[in-house]
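Recall the central idea of this unit: under ordinary conditions, the amino acid sequence of a chain determines the structure it adopts. In this exercise we apply that idea directly, starting from the sequence alone.
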Amino acid sequence: MVIHGSDMGGMSQFGFPGEKVYKWSTKDLTSDIIDIGLGGHMPTLDEWLAAAASKHKNMLINFEVKGPLDPVSWLSVFDPVYDYDNTCLAVILLLDKYKVSSRSMISSFNPEIYDSTIRVS
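Accordingly, the structure predicted from this sequence is:
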């Protein structure tokens, strides 16, 4: 999903206090339930890349991948809901699909994201 939320996946900025983005299905996140502004829906990364990759051929892209900041303390909350390796692999496969790897970088404030990105690359 293309979303900017709190570090722990909070959905309060969309009118759902106490809800976590990782507990919602893709179908629900992309539905009309969530208005991201001007009546728009939340795009998947695949949708965003499909629209942007060919239209903006010289654009450099920084993908900030979010995840729990301290996976050890939050293990009971995020496991098995959050999987760093699957998340990073999904991003890498989409970068390859749209042939934007050479002009993209994956960033994060979470070192586990970097470890997973290297592991699955």
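The chain has a mean pLDDT of 83.
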